[in-house]
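Whether sequence alone determines local backbone shape is best considered at the level of individual chains. The sequence in question and its structure tokens are set out directly beneath this paragraph.

***
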Amino acid sequence: YAITETLFQWESQSTTESPTGRRYIHHAERGSSVHLFLRESKEADGDLGAPPYRYAGPMTYVEHTADRPMRIIWQLSWPLPADTFHAARVAAV
């Protein structure tokens, strides 16, 4: 969910000690990038199916808490558009 227009919290089933958890934490120093794609719902809209994902851009690891799920705070490279931010905030409430 969106914390602010440029901070996003994401939960992973991985633990911090797993290879996947370490890959998230150390992505920048390992030369990989992480990109955020969002959609408001996965519910089908009639014959149209689930709504498409919207590209929100690259992001960088800030910090993490907990384990299973591992909660990661990401810094977005650019702010979310107002309508996307609102939907990403509402989805978390």
